[in-house]
Amino acid sequence: MHGIDAPFKCPWGAWREAFNLLDCRPVWEAYYREIAILADIAAVEARGVTKIFGQGQDGVRALDEVSIAIQQNEFFTLLGPSGCGKTTLLRLIAGFEQPTAGEILLKGKPVEHLPPYQRAVNTVFQSYALFPHMTVAQNIAFGLEMRGSPKEKVQGVVEEMLALVKMTGLGGRRPAQLSGGQQQRVALARALANHPDVLLLDEPLSALDLKLRQEMRSELKNLQRRTGITFVFVTHDQEEALTMSDRIAVMSKGKIQQLGSPIEIYEQPVNRFVADFIGDTNFVEASVDGSAGEFVHCRAAGGLDFLANPTANAAPGAKVTLAIRPEKIGLRSGGEAGTVAQTVYVGTDTNYELSLADGSRLVVRLQNAVDGRAQFAVGDKVGIEVPAGAARMLVD
Amino acid sequence: MSVSTPSLAPSERVARAQALMRRRWLRSRYGLAAPALVIIGLFGVLPLVIMVIYSFLEAGEYGGVVWNFSTEAYVSFLFQRDIFDGHLIFSPDYLIIFLRSILFAAATTVICLALGFPTAYFMATRPAHQRTLWVFLITIPFWSNLLVRTLAVMLIIRDEGLINDVLMALGLIRAPIVMLYTDGAVLLGLLYSFLPFMVLPLYASLEKMDFRLVEAGFDLYATRGKVLRRIIIPLARPGIVAGCLLVFIPAIGAYVTPLVLGGGKHLMIGDLIALQFASSRNWPLGSAQALILMTGVLVALLFYVRSTTGKAQALHG
After folding, report:
1. What are the residues whose beta carbons fall under 8 Å from the beta carbon of A254, sequence distance 6 or more?
2. Which chain A residue has its CA at the smallest distance from B237's CA?
3. Is the pLDDT confidence value at B130 over 80?
4. Which of A53, A117, A144 is best to mutate for the B interface (most B CBs within 10 A)?
5. What pLDDT, in 10s, does the model give residues B148-206?
6. CB contact B213 to A (< 8 Å)
7. Residue A53 forms contact with B (CB below 8 Å)
8. Closest CA–CA distance from residue B243 to any residue of chain A (Å)
9. Which residue of chain B is at minimal alpha-carbon distance from A147?
10. Which of A268, A391, B14, B126 is an S-S bond match for A306, by CB 3.0 to 4.6 Å?
11. Hey, are the CB atoms on B218 and A146 less than 8 Å from each other?
């Protein structure tokens, strides 16, 4: 491991004892963390990482030249459908797999040659992977014991961790005697007990039921803020990603499609995949008419006009795809632009599926009235209002 | 007995019906188990009873028994009677053979475990479709008779055997290395015969193991050795226990292997007992020796089981 993790040991006899009594590691850690942030060293960096499973023709390209820099103290999410390579990237960072090409750096140092047990990185596994033959306390103490921490200190940390994840008093239980949510907490405590530089979380909430999942979301976010540990969170759940992350990398087919804050990812999707994967989106084929101030004027086949955000391929006459979020479109009664073909009640809102003049469909999401009634009924003729900039022109 | 009397309360009738159902159920279960129980009773328990009785009788001059009660068989296990005045002299000859057998069986068990564990681990970590093939390969020795296989080992290691022939032809040695009829030959034979009995239960427990736990161990700073000691071995414990029992118990009573490869010079308990019934014609002594062996193994097993379950309970508490 690196210098930060080895507690500084003073070599002079009694002084050494006294010095070691003052457990300086948290101080050093915080200090180095500050320095690392000031020096702008990425907690985790991937440079041109490619991972191919299998040989030759049958080889599966799980990761394709992925480059990414995850900052200190960040809650970073890898978001994508199953098979997009997000878990592979996590396993490369943890050291369970070696990249076929490219390199992984932790705190600016290449770690290709380091086995998992020499990386200051811990993982919360999707299946939790708690040791069934050990108690909760033994599970949490495992990492510290393996690093040779003194017994009294391990005891203290275990208690502290149990309190942190609200499991005080359950240290003597076996994993099999715990509920799914409790096992999840133990897995978290076991990883956090080691004060890793980076905590890797592999879909840790996917096995929990909805209510518990929502609770754990805010708890995870709080834990990350309190501990100041860099979290790398893997999920296929866009809501999880949007609510918890500082930054999100949307992945598909072994490549990072878009990297940015939750707002950027949701409001400014760069391509069709991102727009489609995150949230609901209407895709409208349109042709560019010409520029109109800071926007581009586009005309769709259904007779609708849009003022879209400009992108590179915005030459007049070009065929483009526009992405419009359903909730950004307004409806007014008495128009002739479309007919309500179907309504779907979704609690706070109602989704209206409109049939346009050319037969194409457009989904609009409107908030319900106070009494929960929908604002329009099936068969109503409506006018459509799209605010300037609500439509986003996609690169592909 | 009448099937149902109208004077009975409904709850009582329900209870009766349930009892009847239960009796029927038990009857059908016993009925299904009966053939096996009869065979075990006739050919397992009955001979054991006969053996216990014989061990307390006097030996007939030409084999068989004389129906007089006697503890001579047990006494002569540890003592020799002076031919002239009949007083007892301590004679550890049989005891030494027993201890030797225990030593051989223990050595076989330990070496089988050391060799079998990596093999089982290797098998369990193969892709699922390859594992069946490996299990199949491990069971191949069972296709031929133990005696035949032991004789094959003999052909390989004897003075004019394969190994010596090759070494001599290569000019590495001038005179053959004596391997047959040594302790080493017996141990080799035992290892060869019992290795599959160790590998299979080990494989069964390792195959069920969740290898993500191994990854979790590595993730939590455990080196390879520590992962083995703290995670893999504790989780494979049921397989280790089963494998050790399956090797140790038959190994301690092994008969063919020490006879063929030890050449009668290196007796084990099995051969000693066989000897009493054959050339020595001392049936009571043979019975007593067999019972002493059985009791010893049972007591050891009981202690073992008690100690391990006690530990498991302590961990749970």
Report:
1. A51, A61, A62, A63, A64, A66, A84, A85
2. A133
3. yes
4. A117
5. 999 999 999 988 888 888 998 898 888 888 888 888 899 999 999 999 999 999 999 99
6. yes
7. no
8. 20
9. B221
10. A391
11. no
pLDDT tier, A146 (very low <50, low <70, confident <90, very high otherwise): very high
Cβ contacts of B226 on chain A, cutoff 8 Å = 146
Residue pointed to by tokens 């020595």 = B280
Extract the tokens encoding B110. Answer: 């330990």
- Please say whether the beta carbons of A198 and A232 come within 8 A: yes
Each residue's pLDDT tens digit, B278-317? 888 889 999 999 999 999 889 988 888 787 765 544 444 3
Task: Give the C-alpha separation, A103 to A111, whole Å.
Answer: 8
Contacts of A174 in chain B (CB under 8 A): 316
What is the pLDDT averaged over residues A204-208?
85
Q: Which residues of chain B neighbour A131 with C-beta distances below 8 Å? A: 213, 216-217, 231
Q: Which CA distances in Å does A295 have to A175, A187, A289, A314?
A: 58, 50, 11, 10
Strands A282-292 and A121-124: unpaired
> What is the Cα–Cα distance from A263 to A372, expressed in whole angstroms?
28
For β-strands A361-367 and A295-300, DSSP reports them as unpaired
Can you give the pLDDT at residue A363?
Answer: 92
Phi, psi (degrees; rounded to nearest 5) at B316: -70, -30
ipTM of the complex: 0.78
Task: Tell me the whole-structure pTM to 2 decimals.
Answer: 0.77
Nearest-neighbour CA in chain B from A36: distance (Å):
23
Query: B218 and A117: CB-CB below 8 Å?
Result: yes
Interchain proximity B213–A129, CB inside 8 Å = yes
Expressed in angstroms, the distance from the first to the final Cα of chain A is 44
Report phi then psi at A254, rounded to 5.
Answer: 75, 5
Cα A70 from Cα A234, distance rounded (Å): 13
Residue A96: Cβ-neighbour burial (10 angstroms; 0-12, 13-18, 19+): middle
Contact A124, A200 (CB under 8 A): yes
Number of Cβ within 10 Å of residue A352's Cβ equals 26
Minimal C-alpha gap between B32 and chain A (Å): 36
pLDDT band for A396, please (50, 70, 90 cuts). low
Maximum CA extent, chain B: 100
Which long-range contacts link B191-194 to residues 24+ away (Cβ below 8 Å)?
A: B191/B108, B191/B111, B191/B112, B191/B115, B192/B141, B192/B149, B192/B153, B193/B146, B193/B149, B193/B150, B193/B254, B193/B257, B194/B108, B194/B112, B194/B246, B194/B247, B194/B250, B194/B251
Q: How far apart are CA B288 and CA B53, in angstroms?
A: 10
C-beta atoms of A143 and B235 within 8 A: no
Residues B160-171 as b/e (b if ≥16 CB within 10 A, e otherwise) read ebeebeeeeeee
Rounded average pLDDT over A270-290: 88
Q: Per residue in A175-204, pLDDT tens?
A: 999 998 899 999 999 999 999 999 999 998
Q: Are residues A116 and B230, on separate chains, in Cβ contact within 8 Å?
A: no
